[in-house]
Amino acid sequence: MVSTLNFEITQRPDFSMLKVALESGQQVFAEPSAMASMSPNLTLKAGLKGGALKSLGRMFGGESMIVNTFTADKGPGEVVFAPGHIGDTQHYRLTGGSLMLQRGAYMANSAGIEVTGKWQGAKGFFSGEGLVLLKASGTGDLFFNSYGAILEIDVTDDYVVDTGYIVAFEDTLQYRVRTLPGLRGGGFKRLFFSGEGLVCQFSGQGKVWVQTRYVSPFLSWVNPFRLTKNN
Amino acid sequence: MQYDLVCRPASTAVRFALDAGDSITCEVGAMIAMSSGITVETTSKSRGGGGGIMKGIKRMFTGENFFLNHFTAQQSNQTLLIGPTMIGDCIHHPLRSGSMVVQGSSWLASSSSIDIDATWRGFTSAIFSGESMFWVKCLGTGDLFLSSYGAIYPIQVDGEYTVDTGHIVAFEDTLQFKIGKAGKSLVGSFLGGEGLVCKFQGQGKLYCQSHNPPSLGKLLGPKLKPR
């Protein structure tokens, strides 16, 4: 099966959408609700991809257990995907390696790629947002999305990224979750006042994609506007 | 210190290229990513510990927390990437003389040579809609980075100019101001959807934002589960 997709990403970085032109018989897989529109010659099938265990792993990775399969079984056609929120979409071509995706960043992939959840142990537990990562591996096209724009960072040495802003990274990079380097003052002050809480320190060689906005601070901003209970 | 505004205008972030010794003061939580040769120090209010930790805690409980992170490059060729909370733009304003009054959530970062005074009480906070609204006064010479909800548009005030309080990003303090009602009568102003406005007078630069954060808060707040 052909695992190279003919695609186009438009309206970057704020209202990005992904249009995939499928050849007859070609397939594309996407997270549920990512589909915005499609040609009538495409068939949509929802299902647990890769069996129950792998689906469970994806669920822990903040994704649905269900992956929708779009098949051009009645001739060539196109399908348009868009993230559920304002934000960017990025393409990555996997050639046998692996890419780690932040919780919720997965959008779509071609045939030849396997997406599984990866339990990070204590590393993930302490990161708050849950650095529960998805692992995409194989050979093919992968698409992921963000809240805000996506910036690519070429890591050649050490690099520090706030855990909440990580979208994806190549698994050639080593990483560990820690507090900001050189942050002075006691633990209390450090954790509660710096606001930057936990960061991911990457080392080695590889690429990291970060997003320019993060939904949690926005939720904290909205919080004071909630009504108070009267009783 | 060099800077670059990227992904404008809705997802704008500021990318700094720092040399050893360069220092930037940022809003808490603004850091997205950075090289590892940068150290961070957290203070409340202004650099040098003005205000102190107890006052900081007090401000935190009164909803007036204002903590600053100071990023200092220890080596050359360091990058620092920062971004605001809201969907919107960021701009650079060179502060050469005098001072600038900035709406608290619009202040993103400034050179460490600029003094940040979070206790500015030129407006009585009670009269402003939106609980989280406070103002900071930036004084000194250096670079100032401001953020907005939506787009930012500059106004060169010469004479008089009226702005809805929720749309103010920052203004030079050469401007005099008066809080008032938009229409002739107070009832009429509120019915017209225009709450309180700020009437500026004199000569100076004013930055406004296309969207009004308290309005967004009031739209979303009632739709969420009560606190």
Set down the secondary structure blueprint.
The complex is a heterodimer of chains A (231) and B (227).
Chain A: E1 6-10, E2 17-22, E3 27-30, E4 35-38, E5 43-48, H1 51-60, E6 66-71, E7 77-81, E8 89-101, E9 106-110, E10 113-118, H2 122-125, E11 133-145, E12 150-155, E13 159-162, E14 166-170, E15 174-179, H3 187-193, E16 198-203, E17 206-211, H4 215-222
Antiparallel strand pairs in A: 1-2, 2-7, 3-6, 3-9, 4-7, 5-6, 8-11, 8-14, 9-11, 10-11, 12-17, 13-16, 14-17, 15-16
Chain B: E1 2-6, E2 13-18, E3 23-27, E4 31-35, E5 38-44, H1 52-61, E6 67-73, E7 78-82, E8 90-95, E9 99-103, E10 107-111, E11 115-117, E12 135-139, E13 142-147, E14 152-164, E15 168-172, E16 176-181, H2 186-191, E17 196-209, H3 213-220
Antiparallel strand pairs in B: 1-2, 2-7, 3-6, 3-10, 4-7, 5-6, 8-13, 9-12, 9-15, 10-13, 11-12, 14-17, 15-17, 16-17
Question: Can you put this structure into words, describing what you see?
Answer:
The complex is a heterodimer of chains A (231) and B (227). Chain A has 231 residues and is mainly beta. Chain A has a single domain, classed as Mitochondrial biogenesis AIM24 (Double-stranded beta-helix), CATH 3.60.160. Chain A is 13% helix and 46% strand. Chain A has helices at 51-60, 122-125, 187-193, 215-222, and strands at 6-10, 17-22, 27-30, 35-38, 43-48, 66-71, 77-81, 89-101, 106-110, 113-118, 133-145, 150-155, 159-162, 166-170, 174-179, 198-203, 206-211. In chain A, strands 3, 5, 6, 8, 9, 10, 11, 12, 14 and 17 form a ten-stranded antiparallel beta sheet that branches. Chain A has a four-stranded antiparallel beta sheet with strand order 1-2-7-4, with no helix packed on it. A three-stranded antiparallel beta sheet of chain A has the order 13-16-15, with no helix packed on it. Chain A is globular. Helices cover 11% and strands 48% of the residues of chain B. Chain B is globular, with a radius of gyration of 18 Å. The N and C termini of chain B lie far apart (44 Å). Classes of the chains: A mainly beta (231), B mainly beta (227). Chains A and B meet through strand 13, helix 3, strand 17 and helix 4 of A and strand 4, strand 5 and helix 3 of B.
